[in-house]
Specification:
By secondary structure, the chain is mainly alpha-helical. The chain folds into two domains: 347 residues, Na+/H+ antiporter like fold (Up-down Bundle); 34 residues. Helices cover 77% and strands 0% of the residues. Helix 2 crosses helix 12 and helix 14 runs antiparallel to helix 16. The longest helix has 42 residues.
Length: 466
Amino acid sequence: MALIETVLLLLLAVVVSGALARITRIALPLVQIALGAAVVLITGHTIDLEPDIFFLLFLPPLLFLDGWRIPKEALFRDRAVIFELALGLVLFTVIGLGFLIWWMIPEMPLPVAFALAAILSPTDPIAVQAIAARAPIPKRLMHILEGESLLNDATGLTCMRIAVIAATTGAFSIGSAIGTFAWLALAGVAVGILVTLAISYAKSLVSRRWGEDVGAQIVVSLLIPFSAYLAAEELHASGILAAVAAGITMSFTERGTRATQSMAMTRIRRAVVWDTVQFVANGVIFVILGEQMPSIFARAAEVVAGTSRPETWWLAVYVLAIVATLAILRFVWVWTSLKLTLFRKGQQGPRTKVGLRLTMVMSLAGVRGAITLAGILTLPFVLADGSPMPSRSLAIFLAAGVIIVSLLLATFALPRLLKGVELPPEPSHQQEEDRSRVAAANAAIRAIEEASYKLAETKGDPDLYA
């Protein structure tokens, strides 16, 4: 009964957080973390989810929705920058930050340090949107951040999985890691595509023959990410990449022939349901972070007491050092990436200078959020021999501390830096589509007005028809 009451309080905290964030003008994730801490003070109970259950509940639907809704034209247009950030920066961060953490905390095994670095590499565009509400992010910049987040989620979580395998088994080799990564990636993507295509085909077949049930269609869309994830995990592939691939495939199947498209009513209601799922899932993750912070801190303090630096204040030093290193690594990579991109563009036209403010915005926009928290909580409790996972509580505390500090840093600095920031414009069909939709809507309104006037002319009570 206490667990049910705690879950209901978590959901209530998510609901209240939206209003409090608008009233206080504080970033939504920070409000949710504070409310999570309040839930602990009220109930005295914490929720300890099994890592696999936590991963399954929250990550597949969030990643599936990101892949489904990301603008494909923008993703393809800035594919070079996005892939450099999502793949190159992740590997750069895992190697650089992993060795730094191991150097700072020698008691933490190197595979655990790499796992922590890998899960700290993904960024969270939803947190950036919440923080930058007062200073809107340019569309192209937001599309780049969304594309980066979509791909680096999968890359970072896959790298973490390899590091966890090395930590639990005690064995690691470059060749084995490359082979594992290739299988996880290729098989995961293939499973995601095939599962989505099979479900979409079966759904359209049933709808054409017996009609479309709106409720059933929405439930099917909710089950697709879990189906893809579980099918990939059954084949020892990446369920994360399967969920992402399923989302991207879903967007293309919905754009296909009329036979594969759902009714307009289904699409509208489904969009509302998925917005709710996204809001609740992200909110619950941050509320759980706040709810577990006291116990996480207590366990981390016990771990650090047995290290060469037993003072508790070293925990703050570690968190600040990791945040600073993440910002420096991201700044160096973003500046280099933009330089190379603009150099390639300059060969085809006039060159554009790389602004320091733009580079700083891209660096600070790398806020860690829900994916990082969900991933770090999936660290296994024990090794293959049954002994406890070393430094697990410390790794969870460091990840949680980095999330909070990066959110606070971006909350105060990002809105100021965003003022006046612009990216070079790129041709886009979206603007043409928007103008066409507006013109068609205006023409329809005029046609309705003309029809109502003509109908009113032949009636004795024209006011009812005008």
